[in-house]
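B., you asked whether I could sanity-check this one before it goes into the benchmark set. Here's the sequence:
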Amino acid sequence: MKWITKSFDELTTIELYHILKVRTDIFVVEQKCAYPEIDGHDGVSLHLFSLQNGEIAAYARLVPAGEKYEQASIGRVLVIPAKRKSGLGRQLVSQAIDKIKEEWDVKEIKLQAQSHLESFYGSFGFQPVSEIYDDDGIPHVDMLLTVR
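And here's what the prediction gave me:
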């Protein structure tokens, strides 16, 4: 499995198109959430993805500390439906954590987890730091990972 990490300026037009398409397909269409998918944070973020047969199979956006939250964060985490339950999500989160630690000197990493994935993220060491709350009709919980 090849993982690619690029800044916004390094993305080709085609890569950016595929990233925005897969994010919209999953977060807007599949999850039936009408929200501003293009939120202004992509330009300063790192974009981590894997390609299979020329298509994005998994993706996460890595946002530097101070941009969206006080901490660096992992967001827009997705695995396409055909690749779910294959272990690709575990690889993606592991890669995201490693890349943040490699690129930025951070003490914590934050994410907004869909509440049904709390134990999944907990297996990486993320701890809940909020009550469960509604975000566009989907229960979420804020979680933090202390970086060692």
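One thing to flag: The domain at 3-104 is CATH 3.40.630.30 (Aminopeptidase). Otherwise nothing jumped out at me.
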